[in-house]
Amino acid sequence: MSEKADTNLLSTQELTLIHRYWCACNYLSAGMIYLRDNPLLKQPLKPEHIKQRLLGHWGSSPGLSFAYVHINRLIKKYGLSAIFLAGPGHGAPGVLGPVYLEGTYSEVYPNKSEDEEGLQHFFKEFSFPGGIGSHCTPEMPGSIHEGGELGYSISHAFGAAYDNPDLLVTVMVGDGESETGPLATSWHSNKFLNPIRDGAVLPILHLNGYKINNPSILSRISHDELKHLFMGYGWTPHFVEGSDPSLMHQNMAATLERCVQEIKSIQKTARNTNNPKRPLWPMIVLRSPKGWTGPQEVDGHKVEGFWRAHQVPMSNIKDNPQHLQQLEAWLRSYQPEQLFDENGRLKAELKSLAPQKEQRMSANPHSNGGLLRKALRMPDFSDYAVALEAPGKLSSPNTKPLGKFLRDIMQKNMHNFRVFGPDENSSNKLDDIYEVSKKTWLADYLPEDADGGELSPDGRVMEMLSEHTVEGWLEGYLLTGRHGFFSTYESFVHVIDSMFNQHAKWLAMSKDVPWRAPISSLNLLITSTVWRQDHNGFTHQDPGFLDIVVNKSPEVTRIYLPPDVNCLLSVANHCLNSTDYINVIVCDKQKHLQYLNIDAAIEHCTKGLGIWDWASNDQGEEPDLVMACAGDIPTKEALAATSLLREHFPTLKVRFINVVDLYKLSPQIEHPHGLSDREFDSLFTTNKPIIFNFHGYPYLIHRLAYRRTNHGNLHVRGYKEKGSINTPLELAIQNQIDRFSLAIDAINRIPSLQKIGAHVQEKLRNRQIECCRYAYEHGVDLPEEDEWSWKH
Q1: HSE of 211 in the Cβ direction (CA atoms, 13 Å)?
Q2: Alpha-helix residue ranges (DSSP H) falling in 126-211
Q3: Are residues 701 and 589 in the same domain?
Q4: What DSSP element (H or E) covers 272?
Q5: Cβ distance 136 to 95 under 8 Å?
Q6: Residue 474 in contact with residue 490, Cβ under 8 Å?
């Protein structure tokens, strides 16, 4: 494509100034990678001025700062409120440079002052022990997107734009990033952006041609093919392509101007006519060389415009005089003496190019969303409780009342609360939310959609069959100061394992950044669980997400397994009011026995675990057995096992413990919610058998409790990768979490029963066989076992 500018929008003076400002950004990017001293090159460059380890990524940095500088021009011209997301994973130098130059970095880190000494500290801390990494981490002002894993920049950008009508979210998308599945699906987010109530997202696809050492796919297809690809996604693509800085500055200025005018026109028309018809939003394809303005060649090998520019263009600087000379020539090509004054401060005529105060993208409060966060207006969750006459007798769907609770939360918070999920909210019995808000939808409609489609451009329920995209929307929404709730099937929550991982790391790092205000917690309901896959089978049986969660920092992760409706409501209420956590709630959507009235549920959930006196008979005595459980089906089976044991052995003393907050099992020194050793020993004893019936994989309980005094007597039952198309009880039997297996386990572990329990064991095994045969013949569980209820 021709590099000729469409129009010379910039005057000669403006072109000179904006180019010098960009040179200052590029100088800072290179300086971060190489220099630990002599930051302004006032002395000839010497080996001792160079860092011992050269870390960081140069390749995408010039393109990032190029876009940032040009967006700044339009912020000043139009008074825009904008933030900037950097998709290229290691693109921090290209953003840190302009953030430092506009002064925000020095404001939050006074020792990185806008002078020679501060610049030296700024250079040294980059990719340096005790400093900051090469991603746009939480320590960087203006960042809400870390980029440690590629693929989520677009979805984060849209999450930030929802319900922010005056915000422009500019997002630089790496061409390597564009090869990921999550990024590919996220281009469809434009079908969910309402131009009346939402802000705008302006993607800039950065085609610099290469990844680490391979060409990028989108850079190696024709201009027309690329254009039609994005037109097919529903965008209006604009192209800025070339390498000559003067022509590229003019093209970028004109193209960005055109895009901003298109956005303003789209929003004005929609808002004046109150018609949110889906527009074809503009986007930019920026094709520039990898490592633009860096060394052309090193040791006879092409660098600029090739994969060798991806990370550190030249290495072995200290021991190679030729490389040292070439590095100095490269750094001096930016003419730092014309960019910074004698004291190391950006020259006044360049400083004036940046926006001021909160108009700076690095200081926009939306990028530190906790500053804007307002607490939810909450109805009283106890109003949605299930009334009980006695524990363990009534069956009710667990998640249905939660849907009513979420419905009324949304009604009270129609501008800062949304419910997210991958096409499963109805399946998960949360469909009452549609009474106050439909599913967001700006794509085409068919007549039959009016009959139960629940679609509307004004909807606030975000559904798309891409867990990646929906999770990214939620994260962007939370990071900019709002609230949300996400539900998904247990078997497919693993799709967002790595996204959970990245968000957990963001939260953990943010806790060490004092100027970052707390954001709303990410609340994740896992339902359609392993124990109720009657028709889906083995592929839908995987409770292992909890194992992933436990790997993360105890400062930011919480796991709850409410056994019934009222506990679920109490847990959800707590989670929705919390900040800076990832709250994982596991609760099945089907009908289950209900155990606690609302007052008892509140007490139980506040403690996190506790003895159920009504299911225990050891009051005032030492128990012979501790029967413990976590999860809805495991609780039912543990209660049924307790009932069997008490029927067959009337003098047996059983203490029944239910666990809602899984981290209570951890020692207090390992998790803030953990019980002290004395509390744990008081509940679980120091020497009695413990049968623990668990929702997930058994070893997780051992992992949490391995340091406890009585761990040697702890026997855990959980999912063992057994089953297919099973009835609930048959599946439990195959994995030995059923009432019969638990009772047999108890007999084998209680010394007084080992001598007298053989006949009871035989009866229990025979009953297991009978239950399985009945299921195979009739397709349902034996009614008297399926309809079991607590009778003691």
Answers
A1: 13
A2: 153-161, 181-186
A3: no
A4: helix 245-273
A5: yes
A6: no
Do 408 and 488 reside in the same domain of the chain? yes
Residues 581 and 682 in one domain: no
Nearest to 202 by CA among 217, 218, 190, 185: 190
Kindly report the three-state secondary structure assignment for every residue of 201-245. EEEEEEECCECCCCECHHHHCCHHHHHHHHHHCCCEEEEEECCCH
Is residue 608 situated within a structural domain? no
Distance separating alpha carbons of residues 119 and 106, to the nearest angstrom: 10
Q: What is the CATH number of the domain that holds 34?
A: 3.40.50.970
Domain closes at, from 593, 624, 657: 593
Alpha-carbon dihedral of residues 226, 227, 232, 235, nearest 10 degrees?
120
Q: Do 130 and 266 reside in the same domain of the chain? A: yes
| Token pair belonging to 482 | 């709002």
Question: Which two tokens mark 341?
Answer: 């004054």
In a domain, 6, yes or no: no
Task: Tell me if 631 sits within 8 A of 695, measured CB to CB.
Answer: yes
Residue 775: which CATH number?
A: 3.40.50.920
| Strand pairing report for 591-593 and 395-397 | antiparallel
Q: Name the CA dihedral angle for 682, 688, 694, 697, rounded to a multiple of 10 degrees.
A: 110
CB burial readout 694-705, b (16+ within 10 A) else e: bbbbbebbbebb
Answer whether residue 756 is part of any domain. Answer: yes
CB atoms within 10 A of CB 65: 28
pTM: 0.96
End-to-end Cα spacing for the chain: 81
Q: Are 306 and 210 in contact (CB under 8 A)?
A: yes
My answer on whether 628 and 530 are in the same domain is no
pLDDT at 6 over 80: no
533 secondary structure, DSSP code: -
What whole-number distance in Å separates Cα of residue 439 and Cα of residue 418?
10
What is the helix, strand, coil percentage profile of the chain, to 5? 45, 15, 40
Q: What is the pLDDT of residues 32-83, one digit of tens each?
A: 999 999 999 999 999 999 999 988 889 999 999 999 999 999 999 999 999 9
Collapsing DSSP to helix, strand or coil, 478 comes out as helix
Helix (H) or strand (E) holding 489: strand 483-489
Phi, psi torsion values for 424, nearest 5 degrees = -130, 5
**What's the rounded Cα separation, in Å, for the pair 615 and 243?**
75
pLDDT tens digits, one per residue of 187-239: 999 999 999 999 999 999 999 999 888 999 999 999 999 999 999 999 999 99
Residue type, 204: I
- Measured CA distances, 704 to 664, 668, 674, 737 (Å): 9, 11, 10, 19
Side-chain half-sphere exposure of 359, counting CA atoms within 13 A:
14
Residue 602 CA to chain centroid, in angstroms?
Answer: 29
Residue 386 covered by a domain = yes
Do 321 and 273 have their domain in common?
yes
What is the distance between the alpha carbons of residues 382 and 566, in angstroms, rounded to a whole number? 8
The CA distance from 307 to 180, in Å, is 19
The number of distinct structural domains making up the chain is 3
Domain that holds residue 693: 616-786
Whether residue 219 is found in the same domain as residue 274? yes
Buried b (16+ CB within 10 A) or exposed e, 313-343: bbeebbeeeebbebbbebbeebebeebbeee
Q: Same domain for 633 and 541?
A: no
**Element of type H or E holding 703:** helix 699-705
Q: How far is CA 430 from CA 398, 408, 561, 605, 707, in A?
A: 10, 12, 18, 22, 40
Q: pLDDT band for 1, please (50, 70, 90 cuts).
A: very low
